[in-house]
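cron nightly-structures :: item 1 of 1
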Amino acid sequence: MISQGVLGFQYESEVGRSGMTGLSGLLLYLDLAEAASLSRSLERHLRLREGGQGWTDRQIVMALICLNLAGGDCVEDLRILASDEGFSRVLRRVEQHGMPRRQRRAQDRRWRSERKRSVPSPSAVFRYLASFHDAEQEKLRVSGKAFIPRPSEALLGLGRVQEEFLRFVQSRRPETVATLDMDATLIETSKSESLYCYQSFRAYQPLNVWWAEQGLVAHTEFRDGNVPAGYEQLRVLQESLARLPPGVETVRLRSDSAGYQHELLRYCAQGDNERFGKIDFAVSADVTTEFKRAVARVEASWWKPLGQDGEQEWAEVCFVPDPIGRSRKSPEYRYLAIREPLRQRVLPGCEEQGALPLATVPMSGELYKVFGVVTTLAWEGEAVIGWLRERCGKSEEAHAVMKEDLAGGKLPSGDFGENAAWWSMMILAFNLNAAMKKLVLGTGWESKRMKALRFGLIRLPGRVLEHARRLRVRLSAGHPAIPLLRTARQRILQLAQAGAG
């Protein structure tokens, strides 16, 4: 018993195994993972713990997925997850779901003595993560140069698990169009092994490819902080296209100025991809000196209002960058310019062009901030700009979820491979949560962040009971989440049956 404080109540612990859980709603995610065959996918593609003794690949990865969803942000938080007796009881039962007796006995023999835990210990997880790191790749680093270690076979296996999950979601909620948003994000860290990013702090900088229509991460590549966001983007795009599931017919690309690379744009515009052909795009263009000159030559009557506030205007720009103009075979793009009056007074000493930290062009006696867009879309210019700006909303919000709501913002190690595995497992949790909102919870839940999901669904108190070899999770009478849970389980069952059919 814990002594009384200011208010008239006391804490005391249960005597014996009560079956209480504070994570009744998290069990719903286990149900969806089973419907998506996530555990079997982990077994097929991760072979680090295939033989021998102790925890299996799927047990460790599923525990880390649950840790992300429950709100943990470091390996040590597994101790809290393990202390939830009711959740551990269900987890131990469902991990053998669908196993024949022979396989269940083989799993039991992995333990020298009686197994007492349902969640792996932090030390076991640290050892597991270490197996994703390739020390030989680290020897290939050259100081001061961007380097992306070749992924180990285990990391490639996690990528194949991601790909199979995309196929599951696509098969239940088909989309013929894939709008891919390529964007990197910085993860600030104090680890001495990390490298300085362009903002002059130690960081890692994963590059993510967001599938806007499905709300899923189609591909991710973990990188050091000193690797530029635009480094090898064409290769990453090609890998992302290979992962898109059947049913996708049209692909479009959006990117900030990191994607303004003529090799990448040419690949998309010329239709070099065998499966999808031409890939239309809208990319923020570099505002070079030549582009500024082209903008300055635009007639005043060509500028059209952008949006409702009237502050910004857009216009078509007659501009051919030097890398394209050198060859007759180069594709033709549309260049759009956006201008906005510079309302603030220019500080002394900043009057000259290039002194300001933003691109400006004097026109008609006024100074304008200028932004550029390159595209192959034949839409009205305002529609192209609006479509490109949608990237800043959703894909960047996804980065905030990865780093703040899930465990992507707190990396476990100084070894690159361990952190890459941790990041990939977080992406699995991210996509599982996205599928839960779109396929199961539906309207009203798709826009909710993890804070709302944990409060209204995941962290439901309940008691796990066993009767006639069946587990029951008992919630308090009249809890508002009970109708939601009932409907959600029915939908998950339908998703599973759709695959069986």
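cron nightly-structures :: done
Residues 23 and 253 are 39 Å apart (CA to CA).
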